[in-house]
Design brief:
The structure is a single chain. By secondary structure, this protein is of the alpha+beta class. It is built from 16 helices and 12 strands. The chain has helices spanning 3-12, 19-59, 84-88, 128-131, 156-162, 195-198, 206-213, 233-243, 253-256, 258-296, 298-306, 311-347, 354-357, 368-386, 392-395, 398-403, and strands spanning 63-67, 79-80, 95-109, 114-122, 135-138, 151-155, 169-174, 180-190, 201-205, 219-220, 222-227, 248-252. The strands form 2 sheets. Strands 1, 3, 4, 5, 6, 7, 8, 9, 11 and 12 form a 10-stranded mixed sheet that branches. The protein starts with a helix and ends with a helix. The model has no long low-confidence stretch (mean pLDDT 88).
Length: 406
């Protein structure tokens, strides 16, 4: 029979109301609340980062490849679409999709208002799957076989500014020599919540940009490259750079939007500090719980010593008690944390200001590996810490322990 474990179980089943029972409940609550907060924090952090990235990649890409140029405007230097890289990109295991697009600056005018815009011309190879999540009204563009499509998709911000809606006809003024004007029809309205996109970009046909720039059908402004795994961005960028032509340049999304990714990195550091503080508080609470338990059980410790029980076995009794408290707290913590995340994910209980946070509700993303790691780290750290107060057992003298009255 495992004597320390047996005595620990008997102590836990004691029905008398003592100060220890109250402190034990506090210890369980501390572990439960700490673990629940960590699960919720990481689920929100991962969900927030994933949502921001998805919004970025709905109108941008992981990697952008274009001609080397000193031009800093939205007018792009033409490049041939069917390069060797474009024809062979499917052989690269890191790349999910490549599409040819072109940007062109212009002025969008309705009957009442006008606004400077950037027309993003897309072709039949455009991946609408990611973009459709931002499409709040209307439909994607229908392409034509013989000429360019006169359909466009605008942002909600531009639609409100110009007071236009689905099916309205508007004019695009292209400021060039000679200036050109084209009537277009609004068939969709999108909303990413990212002001940098929403206030500038509209989606149109690549063939329209080609016509305005006097390009042929095998010409675009740049490639947009999407990866299978964003975490492999640096490695994939290096491989792509080795495959593209010498007169082309490569830009990663982290270089295109450094402020956003610096902000996300700052959030990672803040969460780590918060988690460290939570674990520190939980550890100190457990130390306090065990010290109180040992103070109340001092006569029992003295009796066990008188019967010949060594200090290691007596310490194991309180370690078993501490482990029980930790496991109870972890069960409650997982129920509270995962339960709250499920409710938020399904019912979107907590809203957000979309203008400040780029989304209308607190996002949740479950990473079960992270949750498992949090549980393992919690039990190992707190279990290691609670061995410290049990060292008091070794310093307790037999006679004083037997005389002690709680």
């Amino acid at each position: 029979m495992n004597l320390p474990r047996f005595i620990a179980q008997r102590i836990q089943k004691t029905n008398t109301t003592t100060f220890t029972s109250t402190v034990t409940k506090i210890g369980v609550s501390s572990i439960a609340i700490g673990l629940a907060v960590m699960i919720i924090s990481f689920s929100i952090l991962i969900g927030f980062k994933q949502t921001i990235r998805d919004k970025l990649f709905s109108l941008s890409s992981h990697i952008q490849v274009s001609k080397i140029t000193l031009n800093q405007s939205f007018e792009e230097t033409p490049m041939i679409i069917n390069t060797k890289f474009y024809q062979n990109y499917r052989k690269n295991p890191e790349i999910r999709h490549v599409q040819a697009v072109a940007n062109k600056a212009g002025l969008l005018k309705s009957d009442e208002e006008h606004s400077g815009i950037v027309l993003k011309g897309v072709g039949r190879d455009y991946d609408w799957a990611n973009f459709k999540e931002n499409l709040i009204e209307g439909r994607p563009i229908n392409f034509r076989d013989t000429t360019y499509s006169d359909e466009i998709i605008i942002s909600k911000k531009i639609a409100n500014q110009l007071k236009i809606k689905i099916s309205d006809k508007v004019l695009i003024y292209f400021i060039q020599n000679p200036p050109r004007i084209r009537p277009v029809k609004v068939v969709g309205i999108y909303d990413t919540g990212l002001e940098e996109f929403d206030k500038n970009f509209i989606i149109g046909d690549l063939a329209l940009v080609q016509r305005m720039n006097d390009w042929d059908k095998n010409t675009a402004g740049h490639y947009e490259i999407f990866l299978k795994n964003f975490d492999h961005l640096d490695l994939a960028a290096k491989n792509v750079f080795d495959e593209i032509d010498q007169d082309m340049q490569l830009v990663k999304v982290t270089e295109m939007f450094p402020a956003i990714f610096d902000w996300l990195g700052l959030m990672d550091r803040n969460i780590i500090v918060i988690i460290a503080l939570i674990l520190l508080v939980a550890s100190f609470n457990m130390i306090s719980v065990l010290l109180v338990m040992m103070m109340e059980r001092t006569p029992m410790i003295g009796l066990l010593k008188a019967l010949g029980t060594d200090n290691i076995r007596i310490r194991q009794i309180f370690v078993y008690n501490g482990l029980t408290i930790i496991l109870k707290g972890m069960i409650y913590g997982n129920i509270i944390g995962i339960g709250f995340c499920f409710l938020q994910k399904i019912y979107k209980i907590i809203p957000l200001d979309s203008e400040s946070y780029y989304m209308s509700y607190v996002p949740i993303s479950f990473d079960w590996l992270t949750i498992i790691i949090l549980n393992i780290v919690t039990v190992l750290l707190v279990l290691a810490v609670i061995t410290i107060p049990t060292l008091v057992v070794s310093r307790m003298k037999l006679i004083e322990s037997l005389k002690f009255k709680s």
